[in-house]
Amino acid sequence: MRGEPHADGEFTTVGDIFSDVTNPDRKKPFDIRSLMRATIDHDLPPLERWPAMVDAETAVVFDAHLGGHAVTLIGIESKPLPRYGPVPADGPNQWSAGTLFPLSSKKVARAINGASGNRPVVVLANLSGFDGSPESLRRLQLEYGAEIGRAIVNFDGPIILCVVSRYHGGAFVVFSGMLNDNMEVLAVEGSFASVIGGAPAAAVVFTGEVDARTKTDPRVMRLEDALAAANEDDRAPLRTDLAATREAVRMEKLGELAAEFDAIHSVERAREVGSVHRIVAAAALRPSLIAAVERGIAAIR
Questions:
Q1: Based on the number of CB atoms within 10 Å of its own CB, is 202 exposed (0-12), middle (13-18) or buried (19 or more)?
Q2: d(CA 23, CA 20)
Q3: Which of 84, 136, 188, 283 can bridge 141 by disulfide, Cβ–Cβ 3.0-4.6 Å?
Q4: Surface-to-core class of residue 228, CB atoms within 10 Å of its CB (0-12 exposed, 13-18 middle, 19+ buried)
Q5: Host H or E run for residue 295
């Protein structure tokens, strides 16, 4: 069944998370626990580990069953969460969706280490990366992020990572399938996976291309020509119009380039280069995860 988003844009049903109509770019906020509960067995209730761990709210850890197999299921919260208590001036005002913060990273590493040699780990990854604010760096973000990579390298058993929405940044490195031969990476069709997302790529990496497209846009060129031909008395309003138009066009070109980048760096391309092993249909997410767990168990016996 398909529902409608809340007034704040958060989806109410799992179907909307993967909808090409309501969420074509997979950026809409959603409750990760709803998705996690939709994938696990319902005859045995899950146990959430460390639910009250302060400042670790963006990581969610379930001990649950999947296809009758005991697993540790890890999800990354995919909606913004409020911060409580005093907030440092150099830190985020809220916990961003799809982001790991220092203690969230610590919780994930602890979960992976705790399951090693005990049960498979399944990660539902909607992860744009690690927070890089001065506060997070001061609170050992780099060290805790590295602990996740170390936990994966040392993990004894199958690890299944499934990209459910977007998967970018440093997470693309520390959760790499290259770190453990028993790791299988799945992706739900329509999701995105790359070292950097389209929006930051356009804003940071391809600024020269954005500036060139802005400069050659007919709307900008027309105003520049008019300004060059105008007498001094008429130039002030033209300069104002040109500045406003140039800024509007630049934002438009940023969006266009971001969309082009995301279209190229899809999960299909990630599969071609070996970063993703299998692409699965959204409707087949649960059976696909069960099959991956069973393949992993069979491979280490």
A1: buried
A2: 6
A3: 136
A4: exposed
A5: helix 285-300
